[in-house]
Amino acid sequence: MFFYELLVFFIGLFILLFIRRSLKSVKNRGESFISKLRFFEAVKTKVAFKSDKKQKEKALEGYNQRFSIIRRTILIIYVLIWILILITPLFDRISATFVSVIAAIIAAIIGIASRPFLENLIAGVVITFSKQFRVGDTVLIDNHYGTVEDITITHTVIKLWDWKRLVIPNNAMLNKEMVSYTTKDSYLWAHVEFWISYDADIFKVEEIALDAASRSLHFARTGVPRFWIMEMDKEGIKCWVAAWALTPTEAWYLKIDVRKRLIQEFKKNGIKTHAFNLDGVNEHFFDQDCNEKE
C-alpha cells in the first residue's frame, strides 16, 4: 500500500507540474495576441471618448480574470481526483452503500443548483482552449456584425459596429454558426454587387468598376481588382467588382467608396441601372429627360 501511494504521489506531482506549465503557456499566448491588437472595432471610428489603450487594458484584465478562474478550477478538480486515487485503498473499510448515498446526494444538489452556471463554465473553458474565436476577432453572428470585445467565464460580449453590445451565454455561443473575418488572417476579398441595364455598354461598365476599386484608398494594393457578371435576369445584369482589403474595417470602407464612385460614374456616362427596366414608367421618364436635354 505504501508503494502504491508513493507511486501515485510522484506521478500525480509530475502531471500537476505539466498541467501548470501548459496552462501558463496558453495564458502567455492569449496575452500576446491581445497585446498585438490595434483596435477593437468592426468599423474603425475617430471619436473623442474612444481609447484603444483602455480597451486593450480592459480586454487583458478580463482575459486574466477568466483564465485565473479556469486555472484554479482545473487544478482543484485535478487535485481532488489525485487525492481520490490516493485514498482508493481505504474504500474497503467504508460501507459502499454509505459512499453511494453521499455521492448521489452531492451530485443531485450540484446538478440542480448550478446546472446553468456549470454549463457556461465548461463552455467558457472549451472556448478558451479551442480558439474557435478570440477577443479582437471580427465576426458576423445572427446577422450582427461586430468584434469580440470580451469572453468571461460565463458569457461572451460582442461589440457591434454601432457600439451596441450583444451578450451571449458561452453555452449558446458554442452552438452558434458564425462567420469569422480574422480567425486565420485579416485579409478580405471585398465585393460590391450592382445591377445594370441590358442597354449599357458592358465593357465600359467593367472599365468603370475596375477603376473605382483601383482608385480607392482602402484597396490593399495586393493583386488586381476583378469584375464578374454574376447573373442575367429579365430585369437586368447582376455584376460584381471585388478587391483585396487588409482588414474588415478597410473592406467596409472599400465597399462604401466603390459604391459612391460607381454611382457618380454611371450618372456621368449615362449608364442605366436595372431599375429602369422594371416597368415602363421609369423607362418613359428616362427617355423624356434625355429628349429634353437634346
UniProtKB/TrEMBL annotation:
Residues 118-179 form the Mechanosensitive ion channel MscS domain. It comes from the Archaea. Its main location: membrane. The chain crosses the membrane at residues 6-23, 69-88, 94-113. It is found in: Cell membrane. PANTHER family: SMALL-CONDUCTANCE MECHANOSENSITIVE CHANNEL (PTHR30221:SF1). This is Mechanosensitive ion channel protein MscS. It comes from candidate division MSBL1 archaeon SCGC-AAA382M17.
